[in-house]
C-alpha cells in the first residue's frame, strides 16, 4: 500500500505550478468511498490516481449443516489514463488497480453436510473458506469528467468499468485431522469452489461524485 500512496503523492508533486487539475470525492463499489486526483495533460489525455475503500460487510447464516460467519472487505488503489476521444467530458479509461478485496467464511458444523459426494457429520467441526481477488488487475472502463478546462470550481464526475481478474479460494478444516474425510476430499471440494469462481473473470466497478478544479 505504501507504493500506491507514493504514486498519488508523485502525481500531485509533478503537477505543482502547472495548469488546472482537480481533486475528487465520491461513492461507489467495490470500495464505497473514493478519493482521487486528476491531471489533464492535454485536451485528449489525462492521468489520475485514486483510492477507494471503506467497504466492510458481515453476514451470518447456515449453509449445508454449517453455521457460517462471513466477512467481506474491499479497498483498492488505482492508476489510470483517460482518453477524451471527442474532446469533451466523455472519456475512455485504462489502467491498473492494486487491490485488497477478500471474503472470509468461518464455519462451525451443526448437522450433516456433503463433502466431495460424501455425507459427513459436521457437528463441532470447523470448515473455513478464504476468497481473494488478485492483488493487481487491469482496469477498463468509461467515464465523464476530469477534462482539461480553465474553469475553476465544483464539477461532477462518473466512472463505470471492470477490473479484470478472478477470485481464488483456499480452505481449512478440522475434518481431516479428526478422520472424517481425506485431504483429497477437501481438495476436491475446494476445486469445486474455485471452478465456480473462475467464471467470474471481471469485477464491476462504479463511482460517482464531486470534483473541485483549481
Automatic annotation (TrEMBL):
Keywords: Signal. Gene3D superfamilies: 2.40.160.170. Residues 1-20 form the signal peptide. It comes from the Bacteria. This is Outer membrane protein beta-barrel domain-containing protein. It comes from Rhodoferax lacus.
